[in-house]
Write a structure and sequence with these properties.
By secondary structure, the chain is an alpha/beta fold. Helix content is 37%, strand content 19%. Strand 19, helix 17 and strand 20 form a beta-alpha-beta unit.
């Protein structure tokens, strides 16, 4: 099929000029509306106003421009005798091509809460043109967004204005992708705050990963990685990298404010977290938590990586290093290891909803964005925790929140000195945490303990006391809470409850 006529009505003109000039050079009759028409005229290229076809001006503040049989007849007519005869009877020209870029609805929602402005960015005519042209793809070509301008131009240039059936079908596929994404965005805006439960998401960006969870599995990330990070160095991101990166970012959100903090994660679990006066000291303390597991881990901090810290980090093999920034000399050093992934994190909002695939469907839930503060702590024992213990308990609770259940975090001097996670028994998790702490030479006397869920029995309290732990933070909620409270009272320990459980199954 050779393109002989084209209707152009676009919001974004970026990259449009080469396409317009190519169509003109091919002798294509151009039709257009409003601002696009003015744009084409400024290029000194002949263009026919859509009003000439319809006999009607643009009305209702531009809400109605192309919605007319003289336009849609030319788009929807099959190129067969019966339909062509009807076009001739009503003096409707064939339209072989539609080029559209829709009103920026999502961008408008992102920048304003003005309902009137948002409503006016719901495109009607443009979507209708796209759907009509795509439906009739066997006879009509459709360009549905600015992202397709270059693709269509290449098709025209490579084939001297001819389009194959495969070309038109591919353009139609892309067109329905555009309209479906657009409709989902509009629905979700209208549906926000209603009681209608619907799972409808549309993500425009996607990146093919090195592989999925294992090398024999393929994987695709649907999201805009570049909105969250500047990737400064390293190999392509894998599925496991992404999962670990997400875990690291969510963990460090708990420690954004205050002194330098460094965290080391392995398989989504923190094996080292520490706050100190300098980043180097925080790195050294975090590494000391579990220097064995740190090998091949994900590193993240809450402040700029300086050269001194970079030198120490560089001594250890790691997969990813995430920071708000890197000093130039630190970056120069770190980049020498070409495979290491260096990410500069940007400011971004956490997703309010999270979901995962299960069985033959998807579970969606509120994202766990709760972070305990001192106001959330309810002392339940005779001994009230000291001010120092309160700070330690809050630090420990933040650590435990980001460990897989069952989870126990042991903290001393703002350092994760032991952790147990992913165990079928909370007692097992505690014993694992104690064993790890001792294996790396930590003194547990005066340490505090955080649990991601309640204690059904007093055994964890008793084991913790035997190890030297003096204070406990947990959500509470067991029918036998009093048993653990009584054990603390008997042993002279302090316990606070928060009322918030942070299971991570």
């Amino acid at each position: 099929m050779r393109v002989r006529s084209a209707l152009i009505s676009v919001y974004s003109k970026d990259g449009l000029e080469p396409l317009i000039r190519r169509l003109h050079a091919l002798g294509v009759q151009l039709y257009s509306t409003g601002g696009t028409q003015s744009y084409i005229q400024k290029l000194d290229i002949p263009v026919t106003a859509v009003e000439t076809l319809t006999g009607y001006p643009s009305i209702l503040d531009g809400r109605v421009k192309t919605l007319h049989p003289a336009v849609f007849g030319g788009l929807l007519a099959r190129r067969e005798p019966e339909h062509l005869a009807q076009l001739k009877e009503y003096n409707i020209p064939e339209i072989d091509c539609v080029i559209v870029d829709l009103y920026p609805f999502e961008d408008t929602v992102a920048k304003t809460h003005d309902e009137k402005e948002i409503i006016e960015k719901i495109d009607i005519g443009g979507v209708s043109l796209i759907r009509a042209a795509a439906k009739n793809w066997q006879d009509v070509a459709v360009v549905a967004s600015k992202e397709e301008y270059k693709l269509f131009l290449d098709m025209l240039e490579n084939q001297e204005g001819q389009l194959t059936s495969d070309d038109r079908r591919e353009l139609a596929r892309r067109a329905f992708k555009v309209t479906s994404n657009y409709d989902i965005a509009i629905f979700n805006w209208f549906n926000e705050g209603t009681t209608d439960i619907a799972f409808k998401y549309s993500i425009h960006r996607s990146d093919i990963l090195r592989y999925g969870e294992n090398p024999h599995q393929s994987g695709v990330f649907f999201g805009d990685f570049d909105k969250v990070f500047d990737k400064l160095n390293g190999k392509a991101i894998s599925y496991n990298n992404l999962v670990d990166i997400d875990a690291a970012v969510q963990l460090m959100r708990e420690f954004q404010v205050g002194k330098p903090c460094f965290a080391i994660l392995k398989h989504t679990n923190a094996c080292g977290i520490a706050r100190r006066h300098t980043l180097l000291e925080a790195w050294q303390a975090a590494l000391a938590c579990d220097s064995t597991s740190a090998f091949g881990g994900i590193f993240i901090c809450n402040t700029t990586v300086d050269l001194e810290t970079a030198r120490e980090i560089n001594k250890l093999f790691y997969e990813v290093l995430i920071a708000p920034d890197f000093a130039p000399d630190a970056m120069e050093l770190l980049k020498k290891k070409e495979a290491r992934i260096l990410l500069k994190i940007k400011s971004f909002d956490s997703q309010k909803r999270s979901f995962r695939s299960l069985l033959n469907g998807v579970v969606e839930q509120d994202t766990d964005l709760k972070t305990e503060t001192e106001a959330d702590l309810k002392p339940v024992t005779e001994r009230i925790p000291t001010p120092k213990e309160v700070g330690e308990l809050i630090f420990a609770a933040k650590c435990a929140k980001h460990l897989k259940s069952n989870a126990i975090a042991l903290v001393k001097e703002r350092q994760l000195i032991g952790m147990g996670c992913g165990q079928p028994s909370r007692v097992d998790a505690l014993r694992q945490a104690i064993a790890k702490a001792k294996s790396f030479g930590f003194d547990l006397n005066g340490a505090v303990m955080a649990s991601d869920a309640f204690f059904p029995f007093p055994d964890c309290v008793e084991i913790a006391h035997e190890a030297g732990i003096t204070a406990v933070i947990q959500p509470g909620g067991s029918l036998k809470d009093q048993d653990s409270i009584d054990a603390c009272n008997r042993l002279g320990m302090a316990m606070v409850m928060t009322g918030f459980r942070h299971f991570r199954h």
